[in-house]
Every structure is written in C-alpha cells, then in structure tokens.
Structure to design on (228 residues):
C-alpha cells in the first residue's frame, strides 16, 4: 500500500533562516506531488505541484521554492524565512495517470517563525 | 483564489443526528471531492463525484452534485463523536492541463457532542 511521510511535524525557525521540508512517498511510481499551505482556520492554498522529476510548477509567487530530485521525493525550501511564512504545510500525492484521482495527504508540518 | 465555499462555517449537533454541509463553486468542473481533517492532521479523502454524476454514497456519507447550481452537499447520517472534524470541498476544474490540481474551500467545522 502507498504511504506518504512528511517531516518534521513541527518546526520553529527565526526570521531570515533557511528552510527545508521533506516529503517522500512509498508504494507508487511517478506520482503527482503537491505542496500546500494552510493558514489558521482557512482552506488549503496550493503552492507547488510536480508531475515528474525536476518538473516544478508554482501556483503563487512567494519566498519559497520546491524541488523534486527523485521520483518520490518532494522538497520545500526557502533561503530566508519571513514571518508570513508561518503556517501548516501539507504534502500530498495523487496517481500520475488519468484524471479524477483523489489526493492523499501527509500529516503536515507546523512551521512557526519567530 | 478559493473556488469552493462551504456553508455553514461551523456546525454543532448531537450524536445520532444528521449533519449536512454545502459547497458552492464558481467555474465548471471535472470533479468535486470532499475531505475531512482532524485537528492538526492531514486531510483524508472521503468521496469524489464526477461532473456527470448526481449522487454518490459511501457508508454513512451521501454526496450530491448539482452542476446547474454549481453546488454540492455532504450528508453524514447518524453522526458520531468521532465525526468531529473540519470538512472541505475541493474542485478540479481541469483548466490548462492542471494535472488534477484542486482548489479547496475554507471548510466547515463540525462538532458532534456525545
């Protein structure tokens, strides 16, 4: 069966520090991968998606970047964090073939910027 | 931007009662999906309904879709305390080869009291 791992679960970082959040998927090949951010009491905002190794699409301009160095690895990064980067970050995957597929989420990383 | 908007924002019921949540959206869709999120956790997929479907059931869940009104409803019958969570609708508009990208609403926070 497929599983998705996301870490760390919580992270407290000072303003201006770098960031690296990692997400890995097991049990499937060539998945579509997604990074979302959820502000408190809000829905999810899609940040990045990837349909293959090295293929990254950004949905919103921001201080963050994403990379997909391996088929089942998706990394969210920042060189210098801002206060506004605080939030709950969720990684998700969906089967790469066909449409009308559900997305499967990790347990998220709660990022607090001080 | 948010496509789906859930209504109500919060709902409090007694165990055993039915819970109905509504979702409205703005553009044409390929499918509409409902997800559940327990506090501090990732989202769990509940049901996907395609644009050519009008009703779908899964256990105690019933989802309807009215594409003429651009709306959907999620009914949870015989609710349990364990159903306490936030519920989100998400739409896949399929524009621009978006590879199944979803747009999420802000969610309905359901509280089921024992």
């Amino acid at each position: 069966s497929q599983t998705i791992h996301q870490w760390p679960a919580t992270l407290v970082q000072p303003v201006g520090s770098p960031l690296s959040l990692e997400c890995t998927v097991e049990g499937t090949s060539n998945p579509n991968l997604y990074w979302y951010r959820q502000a408190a009491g809000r829905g999810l905002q899609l940040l990045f998606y990837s349909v293959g190794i090295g293929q990254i699409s950004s949905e919103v301009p921001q201080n963050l970047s994403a990379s997909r160095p391996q088929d089942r690895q998706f990394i969210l990064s920042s060189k210098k964090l801002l206060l506004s980067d605080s939030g709950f970050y969720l990684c998700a995957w969906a089967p790469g073939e066909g449409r009308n597929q559900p997305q499967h989420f990790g347990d998220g990383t709660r990022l607090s910027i001080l | 931007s948010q496509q789906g908007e859930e209504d109500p924002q919060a709902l409090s019921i007694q165990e055993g009662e039915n819970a109905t949540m509504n979702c409205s959206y703005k553009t044409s869709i390929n499918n509409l999906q409902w997800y559940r999120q327990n506090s501090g956790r990732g989202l769990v997929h509940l049901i996907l309904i395609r644009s050519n479907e009008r009703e779908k059931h899964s256990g105690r869940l019933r989802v309807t879709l009215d594409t003429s009104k651009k709306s959907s409803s999620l009914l949870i019958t015989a609710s349990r305390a364990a159903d306490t969570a936030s519920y989100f609708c998400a739409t896949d508009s399929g524009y621009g080869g978006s590879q199944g990208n979803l747009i999420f609403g802000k969610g309905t926070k359901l509280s089921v009291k024992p």
